[in-house]
Amino acid sequence: MFGSHIILSSKIELTFIQRLLSDNSDLNNKQLAEVLERELTDNGKLKSPPEVIFRDSWSKSIFPKLREEGYQGENKWQKARKWLINTKYPIWKDKQVSSLNLLDSWRWLRDKAENRRVINPIILQQPPLSELAIGGWEKKENPIKQIPLNSLIHYQIQLPQGGYLLLLEKFSNSADVYCLCPSSVSPSFEFDTGEVILPQKTKHYSKDHFTVEGSIGIEEVLAVISPVKPKLDWLPKLQDKPLSLTEKHLQSLITMVNMQ
After folding, report:
1. What is the tens place of the pLDDT at every residue in 93-119?
2. Which of 46, 70, 135, 173 is the most buried if burial means most Cβ atoms within 10 Å?
3. What are the φ and ψ backbone dihedral angles of 125, each rounded to 5 degrees?
4. Is residue 1 part of a domain?
5. Is the peptide bond before 199 cis (omega within 30 degrees of 0)?
């Protein structure tokens, strides 16, 4: 149960899972036991009525196991379900996040993205044809936008809502992930709805572009927009260089995203 120490037999596990499924919440125990009669009675081999097997699974096995885990409520599945969701699940979820490495954390955030058209790399200047080598930027729902190495670009970000912008970039063919915003390349990290261009010239950054460097490959960029100021103690200040991120940084960001 949520990766804890509780081990249940297959029949008891069935009653546990099926009773807590929201799809079954309109059924009382007797009705649900009748739905599960074939599994509970081993195709009729067991003579006990299915509702008795169901009831005993909870009263004699599941509730005692829950109490070993700290449950102190009534012997009612609705109360137990609420306790599991509010108390045990957050602990389990935190353990899952803390086990992610840097790339797994990045993939989690990338797969969580709701709108893949928020960020668009704009080529400001390309190198001479003799220097062209094709790189790219991942945009799953459209053909990958190809950008020659040594091009000058900036990112055009369409914010669907106002808030605090965290702009992260994973460089091609590496595990290097950086926080571009907030950092010295941005005059702020709180923006209104609409278009944001990064980088911008600031007193701590003298250019209005990035240079596409490194090896040919796919670079990925993520925008995280928070309606409230993120409580992440690692966030760079506006005078700081873009920060190289670790799995701990991304894990804390995942926790923040999960809470919103």
Report:
1. 777 888 889 999 999 999 888 877 789
2. 135
3. -155, 130
4. no
5. yes
